[in-house]
Amino acid sequence: MEGIWSVLRERLDYASFVPRLVPDIERAELRRRDGSTYYVLKNPRGGRGAGLYARLEPEDLRLVDLMDGVRSVQDILVAHLDRHGSFALDRLARVTAVLGANGFFGEERPAIYEKLAARRAMRDPLTRISMLLRKLIMWDIARWNNAERVVDVAYRLGGRLAFTRIGGTLLVVLALAGIVIWVRELGAGRHGLGKVQDS
Fold it and tell me: 0.85 cut: is pTM over it?
């Protein structure tokens, strides 16, 4: 049991934390409209392949440049104090929090807030219905490879009219008329699902 507490104590001791940046981090120097410089770091491994980004000020980047995987937070603060003459504890805490939250130290942040928001949203019946409809729409019923040529020809031969106001209105009226006719036919009883001995 003492081992757990020592590990916790070590991990919670911020001064002894050694920030190790993941390899292949990309860096871009950008300028605001007023001409001042800021930097964007990209972690290509985060965000399920899309990459995660962190926006930093030049003072923040000086601290990031000191993160060599050997220096602890305490050593980084002392080195920064020697080089630039300022004690940047608050800035370093903010930079390490931003980088850590975006997986720049190797562990991508867990999607806890997203999962909690999704669970909370599922309590709402409208959200549940919209999720069900989304699944029905996204349901892969059939595949049509190389449909681009046929769709392009249909669009050029008049399909583009469906994307105008008049065309959209006509499509809605046609759909509603189809539903009305279907309900009438269903109510007439002429088209049962199955007949058993002239029933």
Answer: no
